[in-house]
Amino acid sequence: MQATPSYILSGPKETTKIPNQTLGRLIFDCLKKRPHNDEINVNAYTGDALTAEKLLTSSVKLSIVFKKMGLGRGDVIAVICENCLNYFIPFAAAFYMGVTVNPLNSAYTVGELKSLLLISKPKLILCSEKSYKTVLEVAQDINITKANILFMEHNEYEKESEIQCFEELLESVTVNINDFEPEEYDISETALIMSSSGTTGHPKGVQLSHENIRSAILPFSNPNHGAYSSKDATVLVPPFYHLFGLLHEFCAVIIGIKVIIMDGFNPEVYLKAIQDYKATILNAVPPLVHFLARSPLVDEYDLSAVKDIVCGGAPLSSTVEKEFEDRFPKLKVRQLYGLTEASGMCVAIPRSCLPNKDGTAGVLIENVLAKIVDVETNKSVCSYKVGEICFKGPMVMKGYFSNPDATKNCFDEEGFLHTGDLGYYDEDGYFYVVDRIKELIKYKGFQVPPAELETLLLSHPAVKDCGVIGISDERAGQVPLAFVVPKEEAVVVEKELVDYVAERISVTKRLYGGVKFVKEIPKTPSGKILRRKLVDIHRGSN
């Protein structure tokens, strides 16, 4: 792969045949063509399945229910739920109508959830048994009544909460699928609002259009990258509110891969599902590769059907990668690199030509343009020169929802999205990610803004000042470590502060790196924390 004289690299042209249509039309047409008993999803714990017929019928009926509730094109609904068989039904129903979906983490605290819902301003919330109490606490602050909250699945709290499960509402709806047609609208309209945090700790809503998601699905069916087909199955641990997980639901419907779903990770259930359903593809984050490489449990199960493993979300340790490949000599971990703002994957190690290149994230996928820019001059640089990685193409987001300033700041004059990651490419067009410009910490593929943790720590009566950085962790990629300056005469220990944070924030953002007490936090004259100096302090103490 060669760069142009302006040092802009381009991925291959589109080769796969997925119609350039709205997701509603794509999903509807694909489901109508599928045999009725085709299994889209299977619950790894119970064996229950969501068939093509159930997804098609339920989603069409739910779109009719949505219309009766006053939802229409351009409105937003929020789905706050763990992975379950019903998860994709409201997505399909919404896309038939041109309604946008905002998937959110059901483990968010009241404060986290409120800040995100104030961005998307949904007219309807679909929640789980786990999340409904948090949803109720937030609802009145965002003008949502109980009539506009629905459960995703039946549970014991329906009567006491006076909240209905959407499946109840479907019972009174009759429809002839042959008479139904999804609404027509432009593929540039927003399909999803995904959550992303900035270095300030303020959350942002990533607007992904129907065209963006269609472009993100393409490489999964490309023989050189995904090669997914109806003959494949995967056991999925990543949550559907994360784009890495959600894209596999689109693949299940549009490409035909069977997705065995899990709500959280259970080692025995995971391995048994791979064995029993003869999973051919594993989609992993670094902690999962770590488990497969080292756990003695793995030897008790037959994983011989697996022919491909892809790892994304965070950098994978070369040590763990080698241990995995020593244990599974017929497999090579194919790493990929991307970000939510670019609808997921932009760079991936090709399936057809696995290189003997240590540490690479791979080559550009189809339809993607890329450049590396010098962080001081903002000029494009040639191969082997380290700079900020930038992408352009039909998979790049529309922008941040209701945040034009943040949108403007992440695009340059040529329309390239600046990722905040440092890297370079070699003479063959293989990319290497070497560091981060952004202050965001990547814990198991989730974004953790240091400023959010710092604000929380400063609310503790014994904390005078603090600074948070991400430190390397073999299993999680990075974990947050806090440097704390205690107030004079205050008595505080590490566990107290770690517990204080854990009680007030979701599980992916806790201080797994611990706390170090220092006399001062290094800062610029303007008061900005010098995190690089904190990194040096950490390295010097080890």
Automatic annotation (TrEMBL):
Keywords: ATP-binding, Magnesium, Metal-binding, Nucleotide-binding, Peroxisome. It is found in: Peroxisome. Its main location: other. Residues 42-401 form the AMP-dependent synthetase/ligase domain. It comes from the Eukaryota. Its cofactor is Mg(2+). GO terms for molecular function: ATP binding; CoA-ligase activity; metal ion binding. SUPFAM superfamilies: Acetyl-CoA synthetase-like (SSF56801). Residues 452-528 form the AMP-binding enzyme C-terminal domain. It holds the Pfam family AMP-binding. One of its GO terms (cellular component) is peroxisome. Belongs to the ATP-dependent AMP-binding enzyme family. PANTHER family: GM05240P, LONG-CHAIN-FATTY-ACID--COA LIGASE. This is Luciferin 4-monooxygenase. It comes from Ignelater luminosus.
